[in-house]
Structures are given as C-alpha cells and as structure tokens.
Known about the structure:
Number of strands: 0
Radius of gyration: 14 Å
Amino acid sequence: MNKLLALISILYLNCAVAKNIEPLNNHSLEEFFTDEKASHTVLERCISLYSAITELTKKKYPELASEFFQIANTLYPYGIISFSKTRKISYEEAEKFFFTNVNNLTNLYIDEMKKNGEKNKSYFKL
C-alpha cells in the first residue's frame, strides 16, 4: 500500500502544473542523485505533498494521514539541511525559509488536489 501511494505521489509530482508547481520531468534521475539543488527540489516537494495529503485525509483516513505525517516529519530535517547547503545560510535561517516554502507549496498542492477532487471525484486521478 505504501509503495503504491509513493508511486502515485511521484506520478502526481511529475504531472502537477500550477502557478508555482513545475513538473519534475525537467530533471534527469542522475541530477536528483548528484545535484544538491535538484535533490532539494525533490525533498521540498515530497514534504509538501505528504503534508497536503495529511491535511486532506486526516478526517476520513486518520491512519493513512498519520503515515504521511510521519514521512513528512522524517524528511523535514533533511530538507532544511539541503536548503542550508544550497543557499549557504545557517540552519536556523534555512529552517525559517524552508518552513515558509513548504507551507506555501503545501497550500498549492491542497488547492490543486481539491480542484482535481471536485472534477474527478479523486485527489489523484488525472
């Protein structure tokens, strides 16, 4: 089940297009492993997506929401470290900026998923 949800999440990330959400298919898989900025982009988007899924599912599927919450919280410190490295700023400063970025992106994902949910009766159906 977790693998299926992770796959759906990755596919959604590749297809998502909104004001500030650009597709990840502009990067190669090699870039994600070797380029710190590309890795940071993936971390930031995954954390934001998992946070959005947590918010959207917590009432109807609390156990599922809890799992996504745990994943987001596990990745969160790595996102801050990555942000700190790519921007060459302190961890404390990076934490503030990263929180704002993730919060804004989470809200964008929630908005897009709600629109998609109304249109397709599913948050993930394209």
